[in-house]
């Protein structure tokens, strides 16, 4: 509670330009007002993909550039203020952070709507969107050659798919669907960090074991971390949220990006 009160005081001093430095990320993500304030400072950018679709994303810049970049892929809820806040947090850590949108601007808090939106995503179009944004990041004068991806749940699977479509230097998956095809995984350039939950009924131990076996067969490096938690344990608005495990997973994510991206 004190963390949230302290963050609120910071917001009142400068709404729209909130820095998350010094505040636990969970304190911001758990409070809709703080997440909205953190997200407000991001720049909306757009491009046209190879399939002719106009797509938008939210960009957060670090204090010093050029800097490594990180592409973020949202949960099945869509590109909401929470994911934008994580982009802001990554920018505060020194990364050019781009939160992309695979739902064409649609956001929901209803699980039935989220399931419908997720089901409407077309693989080729989503891949073209990811390709375009990775190329866009790598072409910028304020980015270095190093690029990573991160995603949660629906976005965790697409974080991996993005890295299969374009060579990137680091991939982080939070309980996302995993490819188990050795031939496909051989296309990976950089290592994969996975955060998995022991009580997850979707991204379960069988799926992770199949992914790890295929990664080993493809001679591609990976690190897997298991948590005594459930699916969506890193989302403070979820009933399955686990504060300690979420904080540990975030520290591991930052350490991984630091080691692989700089």
Structure in words:
This protein is α/β, with parallel strands linked by helices and 262 residues long. It has a single domain, classed as Rossmann fold, CATH 3.40.50.1820. The chain is built from 10 helices and 8 strands. It has an 8-stranded mixed sheet with strand order 1-2-4-3-5-6-7-8, sandwiched between helices. β6 (170-174), α8 and β7 (192-197) form a beta-alpha-beta unit. Mean pLDDT is 92; it is low at 1-16.
Which ranges are low-confidence, i.e. pLDDT below 50, for 5 or more consecutive residues?
A: 1-16
Query: Could you give the count of β-strands?
Result: 8
* Bulk shape: globular
CATH fold description: Rossmann fold
DSSP summary: helix tally: 10
H-E order: HHHEEEHEHHEHEHEHEH
Largest sheet: 8 strands, mixed
Report mean pLDDT, rounded to a whole number. 92
CATH secondary-structure class: Alpha Beta
Give the C-alpha Rg. Answer: 17 Å
Q: Roughly how much helix do the residues carry, as a percent range?
A: 40-55%
CATH homolog superfamily: Alpha/Beta hydrolase fold, catalytic domain
Structural class: alpha/beta
Distance between the termini: 33 Å
CATH architecture: 3-Layer(aba) Sandwich
């Amino acid at each position: 509670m004190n963390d949230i009160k302290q963050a609120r005081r910071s917001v009142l001093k400068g709404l729209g330009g909130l820095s998350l430095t010094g505040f636990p990320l969970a304190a911001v993500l758990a409070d809709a007002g703080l997440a909205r304030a953190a997200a407000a400072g991001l720049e909306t950018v757009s491009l046209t993909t190879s399939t002719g679709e106009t797509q938008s994303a939210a960009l957060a810049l670090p204090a010093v550039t050029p800097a490594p970049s990180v592409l973020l892929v949202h949960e099945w809820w869509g590109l909401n203020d929470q994911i934008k806040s994580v982009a802001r947090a990554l920018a505060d850590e020194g990364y050019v952070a781009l939160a992309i949108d695979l739902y064409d601007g649609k956001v929901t808090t209803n699980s039935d709507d989220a399931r419908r939106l997720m089901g409407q995503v077309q693989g080729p179009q989503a891949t073209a969107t990811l390709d375009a944004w990775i190329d866009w990041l790598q072409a910028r004068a304020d980015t270095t050659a190093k690029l990573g991806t991160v995603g949660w749940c629906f976005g965790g699977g697409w974080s991996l798919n993005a890295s299969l479509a374009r060579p990137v230097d680091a991939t982080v998956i939070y309980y996302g669907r995993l490819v188990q095809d050795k031939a496909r995984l051989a296309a990976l350039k950089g290592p994969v960090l996975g955060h998995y939950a022991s009580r997850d009924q979707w991204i379960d131990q069988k799926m992770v074991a199949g992914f790890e076996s295929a990664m080993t067969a493809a001679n591609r490096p990976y690190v897997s971390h298991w948590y005594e938690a459930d699916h969506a344990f890193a989302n403070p608005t979820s009933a399955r949220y686990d504060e300690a495990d979420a904080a540990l997973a975030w520290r591991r994510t930052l350490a991984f990006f630091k080691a692989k991206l700089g």
